[in-house]
Specification:
Layout (H helix, E strand, L loop, with lengths): L2 H25 L7 H10 L1 H12 L7 H15 L10
Length: 89
Amino acid sequence: MDMKMLARLGAVAFGTVAILATAFELGREEDEPSPQSTAPDVAADSLRGELVRCQMLGEAGIRDMACLRAWAESRRRFIAPAAVTPERE
């Protein structure tokens, strides 16, 4: 068996393994977290809950005044993380 034939056989074997791995990965069902499992975290922080609501709004969120205020507060907390907020007292 010459080297060209061996290289072709290796390439075909590699391609077959790659295709099978892709097929198995696409065939798997992924577990999605239930909305109830994230609800306690969202309820603990009203800003986080508002940001989640704005995220669910999609493009309509840029016209919602409550979302604009929530994003401004989120930026303020990110830029000045050492600032004392009511949650940190």
